[in-house]
Structures are given as structure tokens and as C-alpha cells.
Amino acid sequence: MRRAVPPLLALTVAMVLADSAVVTLALPDILRNLDTTVGQVAWVLISFNLVLALVAVPTAVIFGRAQPRIISAIGIAVFAGSSAACALAGSIEVLIAARCVQALGGALALVGCLELLVAVYGERRGVTVWVTAGVVGTAMGPVAGGLLTEAFSWQAIFVVQVPCAVLAVPAALAVRAAPALPLDRHRPAIRPNVTLALLSAALTAALFLLVLLLVDGWRRSPATAALAVSVVPVAALASRPLARLLRTPAEVEVAVGCFLIAGGLAGLAILPSANLAWTVAPQALVGLGLGLTVDRLSSQAMEMRLPRMHHAGWTIGARHVGVVLGLVILTPVFTEDLQDAQVPAQEAITSLVLDAPLRPEDKIAVAEALGQELSEQQGQVPDLHRAFATADLDPAARPAAAQLERDLDEQLERAATRAFRDSFLIGAGLALVALLSVLASIVVPPRRVRS
Fold first, then answer.
1. CA proximity to 218, closest of 432, 419, 451
2. Sign of torsion over alpha carbons 45, 49, 55, 56
3. What is the pLDDT along the chain (451 residues), one digit of tens a residue?
4. Which of 148, 150, 200, 386 would be a feasible disulfide site paired with 222, CB 3.0-4.6 Å?
């Protein structure tokens, strides 16, 4: 059991921070299964990040004098129970409420596990493990959620968390760590946390909008989308050995990471087609930037600052304030762009139907079926397959209709790609603003924290 304790604690940190984006690829299934609206289902994602952002610092302050193992055990137990409640939720309201409780338990688990990992590994290595686990969890969230949704159901996302969390409770109780007594108070590190928030907002475009483009825009399956976005965590893991090899100063490393994230998001904004291969290079840039920035900034925000839990709370809050900020800024933009793209897309569909090598009566049948599908799927990229499957066509017209369906799908994919372009560019702009804050810290170095 002793050997399993540190990995279980690190897994807990990764699991909690993965939950900030783990449901992204499951949102369409949740929308259908719980018979809800797009606006309501978005709160499954927003509620967790918002609550975690709001309670991270108060939780660290209130429980700063308590035993870390007790804090961790309580938080992990609450997280496990609320995960089970998410899996059993029969309505969107219950699911959102359970997600809020899940975030509260997650906040307790995160700040408590930091102290326990420091007790096991020592200051420097303990903080490094805590930060790295969080980066891996954040990047792996959409991948894990997509694979579980495709293989089983959206409920499986939360079911698998329960046994992991249950095993982590005794692991937390097994570690003896002194409370982080608030005797040596330091002010929060403003610049690293602000940069962290800006980057988290920018990364929302890659970790949230990209998967929506793949699933809702390009009609890829959750499993295919999950494998496609696995480029980000792989590149993030590869960035650390690369950084050690180059041995660049921390500020330069973070500046390069911000630039890479901006470049990757700009690359996603100018994708030439809906071929998944075009997303690999931009995602690799984003992943490398993620690996070079988030852990460095988190370490800078916490380095030599006591009480450690308080400053961990600030970094958690900053990251999830950034996620909420990104969702608030980007969601209306791509939603509006999708609506604006509907009219030209429908005009293109009409033109393709008229030019198709079909008899007039078959064109009318296809047009009527397409019109019904477009009407029923307002506000989203429509799936036109059912229209062709249900249209009353002459058997001899089926090959031409199949070609027309492929042409229409390509037209819709192009329209969806254009609709997400502005959001990706805004994300790139947020990364460049983060870069400016890093450059400002290089020009005007922050004062060292006195011990």
C-alpha cells in the first residue's frame, strides 16, 4: 500500500483537473439522453470550472490549519460520491448540481494532496509531481471522456472515477503531514497567476472548441475525435525532456510556450480542409506550449510561498477562472458564427441539389427531406444522412444521391470550419496577451519572495 500511495494521490490530482474538460466529447450524448437544451448542457462543463474557481482559495484558507490527510480524504470521498451522483443523474438539473458538489470535493482534494505529496517527496519534487499531474489531467480529459463515451456511454466517464477515488481515500489517510501553518505569509504571485488565467482561456479553444468542431462540425465519432486530440497530451509530455535538453531560462521557456500556443490556435483557424491530418501540427504546437507554460507558471506562483495550500488555491482558481473566461468569450462567438453560416450553407445546398444528376421528382423528394432535417436541426451543423435514408427515391437514383450526400457533407464541413475560425483566432489573441505579460516580467523582474 505504501508504494501505491504517491501514484494514487497524483492520479487524484490528474482526475480532478481532467474533469474540467472530460465531458466535452460527451455533451452531444448528454443533450440527447437527458432531453435538454444546448444552453443547459453547456453548464455541465461551466458549472464545474466556475465552482472550482470560486472555492479554491476559500477552501485553502479555511482548511489551512487542518490535517492535510483529513482534508484530502474528505475531499476525495465527496468527489467519489458526487461522481456516482453524476452517473445516476436522470435530469440535467441533477447532473449540474452533482457537478458543483464534485468541484467542491475536488478543491479539497487538490489542496490536501499537495501537502501530502510534499510530505512524501519533499518540497521541490512534491510540488513538481502535483503540477505535472494537473497538466497531464487537463490535457487528457477530452481524450478519456471521448473514448469512454464511444465505448460505453457518457455515464461511464463518472463511473470509472468512483473506484479510483475510493482507493485514494485510504492512501490519503496513510500519509502523515503537518498542517501548513500560516506563520510565514506571502502575497499571491500576481503575474504568474494572471498569465496562467489568460493561457487557460486560450487553451479552452484547443481543449473545448476543437473537439466540438471534430464531433459536431466534421461529424467524427467521439472515439475518432478523442484519438485525434491525443496529439495535445503527447506533445505536452514530450515538451519537458525537450526543455531540459535546451536548458533555457524559465521566463524564456514560458514566453516560447505562449507563442507556440498562439501559433497552434492560429493554425487551427486556417485549416484548409476537414482532413484530420491538418490538425496534427497545430495541436502539436499547442501541446508543446501547454507543457512549457502551465507547470512553469504554477511553480513560479507557488515557489517558496507559504502557506503552500493558499498559493495552490490561487493557481487552481486562476486556471479555472481562465477556463470560464474562455468559455464566456468564445462560446457566443462560434455560436453566432454558426448561425451566420446557415444561410450561405443552405444556398450552397440548394445549388448542389439543383445541379445533381437526378430526375426532377427525385430532386423534389431530396429537397423535402433536407428541408425537414435543416428545420429540425436549427442552431447546429446538421447531419443530413437521415434525409437521404428516408427520401423516397428511385433505386436507380441511389448512386447519384450518395454522391450528392458526400458533396453536401463536404460543403457543411467547410462551413463549420469557417464558423470556428474567429474563435480560434480569439484564442490565439489571448495567448499573445499572455505572452505580453511574460515579456513584461522579463523587462521588469518580480521581486524575490523573502523567506
1. 419
2. positive
3. 567 788 999 999 999 999 988 888 888 788 888 887 767 888 898 999 999 999 998 988 887 777 889 999 999 999 999 999 999 999 999 999 999 999 999 999 999 999 899 888 988 888 889 988 988 888 888 888 888 988 899 999 999 999 999 999 999 999 887 665 555 567 888 899 999 999 999 998 888 888 888 887 788 888 888 889 889 989 988 887 877 777 778 888 999 999 999 999 999 999 998 889 999 999 999 999 998 998 889 888 887 677 788 888 899 999 999 999 998 888 888 777 767 666 666 666 677 776 677 777 666 766 666 666 666 565 556 666 666 666 666 677 777 777 776 777 776 777 778 888 999 999 999 999 999 988 887 766 655 545 4
4. 150
Residue 100: CB atoms within 10 Å: 16
Half-sphere exposure of 121 (CA within 13 A, CB side): 20
Q: Which residues pair with 306 in a beta bridge?
A: 185
Domains and CATH numbers, the chain: 1-180 (1.20.1250.20), 185-451 (1.20.1250)
Pull the grid cell for residue 233. 497530451
Matching residue, cell 501548513: 180
- Residue 37 is given by DSSP the state -
At residue 306, the 3 state secondary structure works out as: strand
> What contacts 334, CB < 8 A, 6 or more positions away?
209, 212, 419, 420, 422, 423
Q: What's phi and psi for 185, nearest 5 deg?
A: -80, 140
Strand partners, 185: 306
Question: pTM (2 decimals)?
Answer: 0.83
Using DSSP, state whether 64 is helix, strand or coil: coil
Crossing angle of the two packed helices 308-355 and 190-204, in degrees rounded to 10: 20
Residues in Cβ contact with 375 at an 8 Å cutoff, skipping those fewer than 6 apart: none
Count Cβ atoms below 10 Å from residue 373 Cβ, excluding itself.
Answer: 17
Alpha carbon 424 to its chain centroid, in Å, reads: 14
> What number of other Cβ atoms are within 10 A of residue 414's Cβ?
18
The HSE-up count of residue 144 (CA atoms within 13 Å, CB side) is 23
Backbone angles phi, psi at 445, to 5 degrees: -60, 140
Q: What is residue 276's DSSP assignment? A: G
